[in-house]
Specification:
The protein is 85% helix and 3% strand. It has helices at 2-20, 24-61, 63-66, 75-111; strands at residues 69-70, 73-74. Strand 1 (69-70) and strand 2 (73-74) form a beta hairpin. Helix 1 (2-20) crosses helix 2 and helix 2 packs antiparallel against helix 4 (75-111). The longest helix is centred in the middle third of the chain and has 38 residues, at 24-61. It starts with a helix and ends with a helix.
Length: 115
């Protein structure tokens, strides 16, 4: 029974020591986390680029859409001046939430007991 307790913590302890001693294994784990965070940032940046950067293209390709008025305000002004801010807030909120999930997955991986 004592051997099982010692063995259960050994993998987690080993992984933590790999991280603190900055060995190749620890470095690989950190690089995996950094890669996941970078991937997330690039995907959400692409979403913002398409969402906001695509609007001027839409108005250039379909000028009739750019002439639409909503409550007396031109649609391009409404989308770029008003709707853009809540969109950016939602994307920022999603980034923080997903980045924290990546970090929690990393912590769970490091602290997972050996099977």
């Amino acid at each position: 029974m004592l051997a099982e307790v010692a063995r259960s913590g050994s993998r987690a302890d080993r992984t933590r020591s790999e991280l603190t001693q900055q060995t190749r294994v620890g470095e690989t784990l950190i690089q995996g986390l950094m890669r996941a965070q970078l991937s997330l940032a690039l995907r959400l940046s692409l979403l913002v680029l398409i969402g906001l950067g695509g609007l001027p293209w839409l108005f250039a390709i379909a000028p009739s859409v750019g002439r639409v008025t909503v409550l007396g305000v031109n649609l391009p002004w409404l989308l770029l001046g008003v709707v853009a801010f809540p969109f950016l807030i939602v994307v920022g909120w999603a980034y923080v939430r997903l980045a924290e999930r990546n970090e929690q997955d990393f912590v769970d991986l490091v602290q997972r007991p050996e099977r």
